[in-house]
Amino acid sequence: MEPVEVTSCVVYSLFVGLWTGSVLFVVLGVLPMARRGELNAAPLRSVAGTLRWVSRLSAVALLLVGALIAAARYTGGPLTGTTGGQLVVGMVVPWGVLAGAVEVGTGRLRNGTERDKVREPARGAWRLFLLAGAAAVLLLVVAGLLGAWTAGYL
User: Fold this and answer.
1) What is the pTM of this model?
2) Of the CATH numbers 2.60.40, 1.10.1200, 1.10.3470, 1.20.120, which one belongs to the domain with range 3-150?
3) What's the burial of 24, exposed, middle or buried (CB within 10 Å: 0-12/13-18/19+)?
4) What gap in Å lies between CA 121 and CA 118, rounded to an integer?
5) Residues in Cβ contact with 42 at an 8 Å cutoff, skipping those fewer than 6 apart
6) Cβ–Cβ < 8 Å for 86, 80
7) Is-contact 104 23, C-beta < 8 A?
8) Whole-angstrom Cα distance, residue 112 to residue 124?
9) What are the DSSP calls for 16-66, one per residue?
10) What pLDDT does residue 68 have?
11) pLDDT tops 80 at residue 1
12) Is the CB of residue 55 less than 8 Å from the CB of residue 23?
């Protein structure tokens, strides 16, 4: 692999980890406390704002770096002609679901917390964040499979 491709893969992995880890932390740690009323509105609003920022930054970074990696690896042939190409295409769906669910979910959290509510917005966003958490795990699995394919294990 060329140094640019290696660097791209490292940057891609860092943003996948940041994004998915942030989402899973909110799903498993923050929202259960908010649903039980153990958080105040201000910290929940702050978490939602930070997660939205991390999500947007990560989504753009993954789109750009992923396109760079795909362009370097899949020149001259169809992207779906190899297992690796199919995995790359397979990352698009969880990426889109994750971005959309976090965007709408954090919007619901922020709207509710602006009215000093915690339980209601947390319950209203719960299913969206469960969907985002599932998409995050799927994105990690596909990224791991793509890494295994690149290393020659698949």
Assistant:
1) 0.92
2) 1.20.120
3) middle
4) 6
5) 113
6) yes
7) no
8) 9
9) HHHHHHHHHHIIIIIHHHHHTT-S-HHHHHHHHHHHHHHHHHHHHHHHHHH
10) 87
11) no
12) yes
Spatial separation of the C-alpha atoms in residues 108 and 125, rounded to whole Å: 6
Percent of the chain with pLDDT over 70: 97
Handedness of CA 91, 92, 94, 99 (dihedral sign): positive
Q: Tokens representing 7? A: 């660097």
For 11, the 3-state DSSP assignment is helix
| 73-102 tens-digit pLDDT | 777 667 778 888 888 888 899 999 999 999
How deeply is 121 buried, as exposed, middle or buried, from its count of CB atoms within 10 A (0-12, 13-18, 19+)? buried
Give the domain ranges of the chain: 3-150
Which tokens hold the place of 26?
């909110």
